[in-house]
Design a protein that fits this description.
The structure holds two protein chains of two kinds. Chain A has helices spanning 40-47, 70-77, 95-106, 111-124, 140-152, 170-187, 198-204, 222-226, 231-243; strands at residues 2-11, 14-24, 29-33, 55-60, 63-64, 80-83, 158-162, 190-194, 207-212, 215-220. By secondary structure, chain A is an alpha/beta fold. Chain A has one domain (2-92, 156-243): 3-Layer(aba) Sandwich (Rossmann fold), CATH 3.40.50.300. Chain B has one domain (2-13, 23-238). Chain B has helices spanning 2-15, 23-62, 69-107, 110-116, 121-159, 164-174, 177-203, 208-241. The chains are: A alpha/beta, B mainly alpha.
Chain lengths: 249, 246
C-alpha cells in the first residue's frame, strides 16, 4: 500500500529524515513512535507531499508520489484521509460546512448523498448535535472527533494520523483511540499513526516503528518494542509508561 | 522580502486564469471587505474634506481667490486625497485582517488540511482575496470622494454663503475627466497591493501565534509604504498621459 525507500529530508543543516525505508501493507495499522523532533510528522507530511523530500522514493498504491503533477497528486489525495494534530478545522466554517467542504470540492454528489454522508460520519463520532456549531464552540476532544469525521467523509482507503491524542485527557484519549480502531475496522482502511501515546498505540497498532535521529531504529509489534532491551527503547518506553501511570503493564 | 513578493505576485498571475474560478468566494470577500471598511473610510473621508476646505479657505482669501475654493477642494480630493487616504485606511483595516486570517490558518494547519483534501489553497484563499481587494477599493474610493465633497461643502457653508447647487457646479466645472480617471484608476493598483501583501504575509507566516502577529503588523507597514511609492510613480505617469493644461 505504502512503500518508502531511502527517504531524506533536511531543513538547512538539520537532517530530519536520514534514509527512511518502510513498507505499510494493506489493512496495517502502523504506529510511528519517537521523541519530539525526530521527524515523525515530517515523514507523514512527505508522504502526501505537504513537504517535498530531498531524495528517495514514495509509492502509494503502486503510484510514484514524487513523480506526480498537481492534478495526479490531488486525485491521489482524494483516497487519503489526514487527521492533523490540532484537527485543523476551518475556523470560518460551521461543522457542517467543514464536513461538506471536501465533498463539494472534489466529488460530484447530490445534496441527498452529501447530507447522508454528513449524518453518517457525525453519528460515527457521536456528535450529531454539533452539526451547526462553529469550531470555536467545540472542546479539544470534540474538535478531534470532527477532524476525524472530516477525514473519513470521503471514504479514504488510507488514513494518516498526526498525534491524534495529543493535548487530550486520558479518558478522551482512550475514547479517540477506540473510535479510530472502530472506524478502521468498519471502513477497512490502512493507517499510519504518529504518536508517542503508548495507550493509543496499544489500542490501535498491529505494527510499530521507532524513529530516532531520522532513522528507523526498531520495527515490530508494540510488545516487541516495549520489552526490547535496547537502551534507547527502554529509556523511551519507561518514560511513556510512567506518563501513562503504568496502565499498560 | 521583495523577491518573495514578486514571486508571489507572479504566482497570482499564473493561477488567476486557471479554472475553477471562485466567483462565489470573490463576491463574498468583496461584500465582506467592503462592508467592513465602509464606515471608517466614510468618516475619514468626511473629516478630510471638511478640514481641507477649512484650511484652504483663509489661504485662498489671502490671495482674493475664495471663489476657487470648491474647485481646489474638488481637485485635491479627486486627484489625490480621496484615493490615497482611502487606500491607506483600507490597507490598515484589510491588509492586517487578511494577514492575520491567513497567518492563523497557516500556523493551525488549516491551509495544509485544504491542500490534503485536494483543494488548491492558493486559488481558493489567495487569488479570491487579491481579486476582491483590487475591485472593491475603486468602489470605496468613489464613495469616499463623494463623502469628502459633502464634508467640504459643510466647511464651505461655514465660511462662505454658498448653495449646494452652486458648490457642485463649481466642483464639476473645475474637476475634469483627466482628474477623475487617473485618481480612481490608480486605486486598482492600490487594491492589488493591499491584497497581495496581506496574502503574502499571512500565507507565508511561521512561528506560531507570534508569526501571526508579525504577519498582521508587517502587512500594514509594507502595503502602506508600497501604496505611497506606487502613488508617486502613478502620479508621474498620469500627468504624462493626461497633462493638466488649461
Amino acid at each position: 500500500m505504502v512503500e518508502i525507500r531511502d527517504l531524506h529530508k533536511s531543513f538547512g543543516n538539520n537532517v530530519v529524515l536520514d534514509g527512511v525505508s518502510l513498507n505499510v501493507e494493506e489493512a496495517d495499522n502502523m504506529i510511528v513512535f519517537g521523541r519530539s523532533g525526530t521527524g515523525k510528522s515530517v515523514l507523514l507530511k512527505c508522504l502526501i507531499r505537504l513537504l517535498e523530500p530531498d531524495s528517495g522514493s514514495i509509492k502509494i498504491q503502486d503510484k510514484d508520489v514524487l513523480a506526480m503533477d498537481l492534478k495526479e497528486l490531488n486525485s491521489l489525495r482524494k483516497d487519503i484521509g489526514f487527521l492533523f494534530q490540532g484537527a485543523a478545522l476551518y475556523d470560518s466554517m460551521s461543522v457542517r460546512e467543514n464536513l461538506e467542504f471536501p465533498l463539494i470540492r472534489n466529488f460530484d454528489l447530490g445534496r441527498k448523498e452529501i447530507d447522508e454522508r454528513v449524518h453518517f460520519v457525525l453519528e460515527a463520532v457521536s456528535l450529531l448535535e454539533a452539526v451547526d456549531k462553529m469550531p470555536s464552540e467545540l472542546s479539544g476532544g470534540m474538535k478531534k472527533r470532527i477532524g476525524l469525521a472530516r477525514s473519513i467523509i470521503t471514504k479514504p482507503k488510507l488514513m494518516f494520523y498526526d498525534e491524534p491524542t495529543t493535548g487530550l485527557d486520558p479518558i478522551t484519549s482512550k475514547e479517540i483511540s477506540v473510535l479510530i480502531i472502530e472506524l478502521q475496522r468498519a471502513l477497512k482502511m490502512t493507517s499510519v499513526v504518529v504518536t508517542h501515546d503508548l495507550l493509543c498505540a496499544k489500542i490501535i497498532a498491529n505494527r510499530a516503528i521507532v524513529l530516532d535521529e531520522g532513522k528507523i531504529v526498531k520495527e515490530g509489534s508494540i510488545e516487541d518494542l516495549i520489552t526490547s532491551d535496547e537502551p534507547l527503547l527502554k529509556n523511551f518506553f519507561s518514560d511513556e509508561i510512567i506518563e501513562n501511570k503504568g496502565s499498560l503493564i | 522580502m521583495l523577491g518573495g513578493l514578486t514571486t508571489f505576485s507572479a504566482r497570482f498571475f499564473k493561477e488567476v486564469f486557471i479554472p475553477p474560478y471562485e466567483i462565489e468566494q470573490i463576491r463574498k470577500h468583496m461584500i465582506e471587505l467592503g462592508m467592513k471598511t465602509l464606515p471608517i473610510v466614510g468618516v475619514t473621508g468626511f473629516i478630510i474634506g471638511l478640514v481641507i476646505a477649512l484650511q484652504l479657505s483663509p489661504v485662498l482669501k489671502r490671495f482674493g481667490a475664495e471663489a476657487f475654493l470648491p474647485g481646489s477642494v474638488g481637485i485635491s480630493i479627486v486627484r489625490e486625497l480621496g484615493p490615497v487616504i482611502c487606500a491607506l485606511i483600507f490597507a490598515g483595516r484589510v491588509s492586517s485582517g487578511i494577514g492575520a486570517e491567513l497567518g492563523s490558518m497557516r500556523v493551525t494547519e488549516q491551509i495544509d488540511a485544504m491542500e490534503v483534501s485536494g483543494v488548491h489553497p492558493f486559488r481558493y484563499l489567495v487569488v479570491t482575496r487579491i481579486f476582491a481587494t483590487t475591485f472593491i477599493l475603486p468602489i470605496l474610493t468613489v464613495y469616499v470622494i463623494f463623502i469628502s465633497l459633502i464634508g467640504a461643502y459643510i466647511a464651505v457653508v461655514l465660511v462662505q454663503n454658498m448653495t449646494w447647487a452652486y458648490y457642485i457646479d463649481r466642483v464639476v466645472f473645475a474637476v475634469e475627466f483627466g482628474d477623475a480617471i487617473p485618481g480612481v484608476s490608480k486605486t486598482f493598483v492600490f487594491g492589488f497591493i493591499v491584497g497581495l501583501v496581506g496574502c503574502y504575509k499571512g500565507y507565508t507566516a511561521e512561528n506560531g501565534t507570534e508569526g501571526v502577529g508579525q504577519a498582521s503588523t508587517s502587512a500594514v507597514v509594507v502595503s502602506s509604504l508600497l501604496i505611497l511609492i506606487f502613488d508617486m510613480v502613478l502620479v508621474k505617469l498620469s500627468l504624462w498621459i493626461w497633462p493638466v493644461v488649461k
